[in-house]
Design a protein that fits this description.
By secondary structure, the protein is α+β, with helices and mostly antiparallel strands. The chain is built from eight helices and 21 strands.
């Protein structure tokens, strides 16, 4: 009987050891497993929420995270908390949306990117021109203290501009900066900011290098605020300086002269009296009525085989002016920008094109550049927006 009891105890001990071993192995697998993109992370997981040094390096708090996780970084909806080890401190909780480990503390912030020196870029979304595109606003902010990065306390405003925007024009560059300020003010109506740094970039993406540093901006400025207007204290525009430099180069002078010759060919062919852009034409429709003018346009909507709406090929800022063009040639148009010779008729009464200028098409030439630079950029690097023709 004693032998049977001893055997039973030995079997139970071996079974308990097997269960304990399996539990330890299970814990090791769970701790070492990577959370898949979008998969909720368990509490106290190794998924990281980026924080400033006072939190990240503090031994006075115990960090835990629960929520979406991607490659070890908090992603999507989640809850990060720092629980104090002593009773004289309050817990710190960030509950909401995360992107790449960065807490998006305001609804206006779309996404985020890490930078060097405990700084981040916060995406405040597009800066739209009349077609709903054109640029994007990012706010540079610091991860400081026990609070998340704050879009309404910016270190700088960064604007990524469409490659077709002419930043060599001081007017255009300053309009982009003013638009960035107004967009930021709408997102942060209660913010008090007396001085702001602004940077303009041109391209398809604003990305930091491997060390977390942004590329050199095309335009940079420091401005103080008075009401809703920018008062520039410092300003530099590399695009304008480069354009002025290029205007003096022999090859650039030859190119500009070729542009002028192409324009003069159309002047002689159609007996045009002026070259204008659509905003100028629209503002001076009464004075230009009945005249033959040249205008660079981008086709917008083909309404019929001989009717289309167009917009200015080279835009100086956020122009939304459209016009209606009538002519048999429209049936052969593609999507390319064109230089048009048109007779100014009046304004449309059609409900689809109410109050837009009506232009009778006499002829056109396809532009090789989307902004019709090959016709409109004149010697000296000046654009022909409103120019009387000999």
């Amino acid at each position: 009987m004693r032998s049977t009891s001893t055997s039973f105890r030995m079997a139970a001990t071996r079974l308990a050891q097997r269960w304990l071993c399996a539990a330890v192995v299970g814990i090791g697998v769970a701790a070492g497993a990577q959370t898949q993109p979008g998969m909720p992370a368990p509490p106290s997981s190794s998924c990281v929420a980026r924080s400033g040094a006072p939190l990240a390096q503090s031994w006075q708090y115990v960090f835990s995270y629960q929520g979406g996780c991607d490659n070890g970084l908090a992603q999507g909806e989640g809850r990060a908390q720092w629980l104090p080890r002593s009773e004289d401190r309050a817990p710190i909780v960030w509950d909401g949306r995360f992107d790449r480990g960065i807490f998006l503390s305001r609804p206006a912030v779309r996404a985020a990117r890490p930078l060097a020196d405990s700084q981040v870029l916060l995406d405040l979304g597009p800066l739209a021109d009349s077609e709903g595109k054109g640029g994007r606003l990012w706010v540079q902010a610091a991860l400081d203290g026990n609070t998340p990065a704050e879009a309404c306390a910016p270190m700088a405003l960064h604007v990524l501009v469409d490659i077709h925007s002419s930043l060599g024009s001081e007017q255009v560059a300053r309009q982009w900066m003013q638009a960035a300020l107004q967009h930021w003010q709408r997102a942060c109506p209660a913010a008090a900011q007396n001085l702001v740094r602004l940077m303009l970039y041109q391209g398809f993406e604003l990305a930091a290098d491997g060390d977390g540093h942004l590329p050199a901006p095309v335009v940079r400025a420091t401005a103080s605020l008075q009401g809703r207007e920018l008062l520039f204290q410092q300003y530099s525009n590399n695009a304008a300086a480069q354009q002025q430099h290029n205007a003096g180069l022999p090859e650039q002078r030859r190119e500009y002269s070729a542009n002028a010759q192409r324009l003069q060919t159309m002047v002689r062919q159609y007996q045009a009296q002026r070259v204008v852009d659509l905003p100028t034409l629209d503002k001076n429709l009464g004075a230009l009525r009945g005249q033959v003018v040249l205008v660079g346009v981008r086709p917008e909507r083909i309404l019929s085989r001989r009717l289309a709406t167009v917009r200015t090929a080279h835009r100086d800022g956020w122009d939304s002016t459209a016009a209606v063009v009538e002519g048999h040639e429209i049936a052969r148009w593609g999507k390319d920008s064109r230089m048009l010779a048109v007779k100014v008729i009046g304004r449309s009464t059609d409900v689809r094109t109410q109050e837009q200028a009506i232009l009778q098409l006499l002829g056109s030439a396809r532009c090789s550049e989307v902004d019709c630079e090959d016709y409109l950029l004149m010697p000296g690097g000046q654009w022909a927006h409103n120019k009387a023709l000999p």
